[in-house]
Amino acid sequence: MSGAESRAGTAGTPAGASRSAIEHHYDVGSDFYRLWLDREMVYSCALWDGPLDDGLDDAQVAKLAWHADSARVDGAARVLDVGCGWGAMLRYLTGSRGVGHATGLTLSADQAAAAASASASASASASVEVRLEDWREHRPEQPYDAVISIGAFEHFARNDLDTAGRRSVYSAFFAACSGWLRAGGRLSLQTIAYEDFDTGSGTESRFFTEEIFPESSLPVLTDIVAASDPWFGIEVLRSDAAHYEHTLELWQRRLQAAEGPAIRLVGRDVYRRYVRYLRVSRGLFDRRVCTLYRISLRRRAAPTRLGS
Ligand SMILES: C[S@@+](CC[C@H](N)C(=O)[O-])C[C@H]1O[C@@H](n2cnc3c(N)ncnc32)[C@H](O)[C@@H]1O
After folding, report:
1. pTM to 2 decimals?
2. Which fold has domain 3-298?
3. Please, which residues have CB within 8 angstroms of residue 253's CB and are 6 or more apart in sequence?
4. Residue nearest to atom 20 of ligand 1 (CA)
5. Measured on CA atoms in the order 41, 151, 64, 255, is the torsion positive or negative?
């Protein structure tokens, strides 16, 4: 058993969203998402260093840069992106940050194909590998210098798990990241989390679990802290609910501006479902039912039991 496997401890981990649940959302088609995402097709909350303006392309690059800095990737030989979407981070790492080899994992076949073809010529001196693979199955042959995961943690725990169940999945994820990293390596994580459970209506949550993100549930901050603590020290944590509210507003405006082409691609029902999902999600951030965490974590040399 490799060091990675012995530290990962993923055997018997309860499942998160299945491949078919992920495909339900992401395989609506890359052409549809291209109509309303930014130039690089980043599908997660953007980041504004100054006022929340309409420059979505720049704000998405600023987000990629924040995580690249947080994971200290400059000149790294090997970086892993867990939940790589359409591959924007992989191209950014190899094209702008001197990373030698970037590996991305996704459960969506559409994304994997699109990311692999868009990344084929990202940089002459670097390589990009896109794998249609669950993080639970990932067994790298060599350690990574850094791991980044943006907007995927939301899918790791199924919605039928209780707090203990969620924490055991998250714990397995942090243990796996620790096992994949070299000594002193960093993990940069971005995830939506519940901030206030009380205010979501039953109809809203049914709409999300049945129609938008089946088999997925959100963490709360204490889940993340408890599950990561044995393996990682948290160095920076920022909460950017307003940034997600604004990102969702820009996505909704762009999708509605492309109503005709969108309906031609996916039909009126799917178009309406997405407009509703973007509008309802925005309300969740506005009311602070949800927030968006960006977290910079440093791998511990050995697991600690300080918090247990
Ligand atoms: C919201 S997208 C974010 C994509 C990208 N990080 C970005 O910011 O554009 C979530 C991604 O997580 C991936 N994902 C979800 N569960 C996963 C799992 N268990 N293993 C690997 N990837 C997973 C999905 O396939 C998808 O690529």
Report:
1. 0.91
2. Rossmann fold (3.40.50)
3. none
4. 134
5. positive
Q: In which residue are the tokens 């082409």 written?
A: 261
Q: Is 178 in the pocket of ligand 1 (CB under 6 A)?
A: no
Enumerate residues 6+ apart whose C-beta is below 8 A from 85.
41, 42, 43, 44, 106, 111, 115, 150, 151
CA 30 from centre of chain: 17
CA of 173 to the centre of ligand 1 (A): 14
Supply 101's token pair.
């080899």
pLDDT in tens, 41-68: 999 999 999 999 999 999 999 999 999 9
In whole angstroms, give the CA distance from residue 134 to residue 137.
Answer: 5
So where are the chain's domains?
3-298
25 C-alpha to center of ligand 1: Å?
11
**Ligand 1 centroid – CA 306 distance (Å):** 31
Dist. CA 151 → ligand 1 center (Å): 6
Instruction: For 23-35, write each residue's pLDDT tens digit.
Output: 666 667 899 999 9
